[in-house]
Amino acid sequence: EDVGWKAAAVNLSDIAAMGGTPVATFLSIALPKDAQGEWAERFIEGYTRISRQYDVPLLGGDTTSSLSHIAINVGVLGRCPSGKRLMRSGAKIGETIYVTGPLGDSAGGLQAILKGISRTEEVNTLILRHKRPVPRIDAGRILMETGKVGAMMDISDGIASDLRHILNASGIGAVIALDKLPCSPELVAVCEEQGWNRFELATGGGEDFELLFTGPEGLESELGIEVYPIGRTVPGNDIIWTIGGKSVDFDFDALE
Fold it and tell me: How far apart are CA 53 and CA 3, in angstroms?
């Protein structure tokens, strides 16, 4: 069920990242013999559950056998008003950089699974965010409708990587305040208990599927949804990381 949910969710998120509305999906899947019975049924249960939640029908696809591995391919059709879809290339110097929600929860959940730490309530919350991400479709549509967003994408690899896609496509640089990154109370608590660096998880962990976008300063007061300013766009072609307004060296090599 978790794999089915996530297979649909991460692709629905790509439509949300452009301010669009998903209208249909197509699923192609290759399964070995030991996954063609109950496993396949439970996969479809999870896939269908999130599809119904967003009223997105599965219109077709293909199934085939695999010798050993499971292969899943999802295609999504979406709709957006002509000329209003949001791209990575629309950011301009002097805009504020925002995210739509907390960062690092999914990465914290994955670390909890890999390290086998005790399943406290906080840990279970992080694991759920990893296994069952929620595409920000409504938020993406609201942002598109403002006509004020410069560039936007979803956070699949972490802002340390994803923000560079916007910067490269738009030909600009950025200053990001690490101490402004929104982190959930659950992530903060688990990081303190386990000795993890929440900045690393929030910037490089990925798979949060929140939206990362640029827009005018103060846009958060106009939206009716919660968004978080985390930095600004500047001349150049790199990311400057700060804490308390001062530049800091932050090494992401360990996250790769």
Answer: 16
